[in-house]
Amino acid sequence: MEIRIGMINTAREIGLETSQTMAEVETLVANSLSGTSPVLKLSDDKGKTYLVASANIAFVELGSDQNRRIGFVG
Questions:
Q1: In a domain, 71, yes or no
Q2: Rg, the chain, Cα only
Q3: How far is CA 25 from CA 9, 37, 52, 72, in A?
Q4: 49 domain residue, yes or no
Q5: Predicted local distance difference test score (pLDDT) of residue 14
Q6: 2, 3, 45, 64: which is deepest, by most CB within 10 A?
Q7: How many separate domains does the chain show?
Q8: Burial (0-12, 13-18, 19+ Cβ within 10 Å), 57
């Protein structure tokens, strides 16, 4: 699943792809934004871990759970 995170006062976004389900990511984001956790912690498919301060999150965009198609579709 593709995730984009927009940060306050920053023109760039954080983009990553994860194998976590949409429900898992939604729970992590909701806990982070509600103040339960001061840091949003996500892991991508390549093994990298992203720690984002909850106070700096402007938006979180969640893509679909479907895998991307490769090649020409016609």
A1: no
A2: 13
A3: 24, 14, 13, 30
A4: yes
A5: 94
A6: 3
A7: 1
A8: middle
Three-class SS of the chain: CEEEEEECCCCCEEEEECCCCHHHHHHHHHHHHHCCCCEEEEECCCCCEEEEEHHHEEEEEECCCCCCCCCCCC
Residue 70: predicted pLDDT? 67
Calculate the alpha carbon distances from 55 to 1, 39, 52 in Å.
24, 8, 9
Predicted pLDDT of residue 64: 75
Question: Which tens digit of pLDDT belongs to each residue from 30-45?
Answer: 999 998 889 999 999 9
Residues of the chain predicted below pLDDT 50: none
What pLDDT score does 50 carry? 94
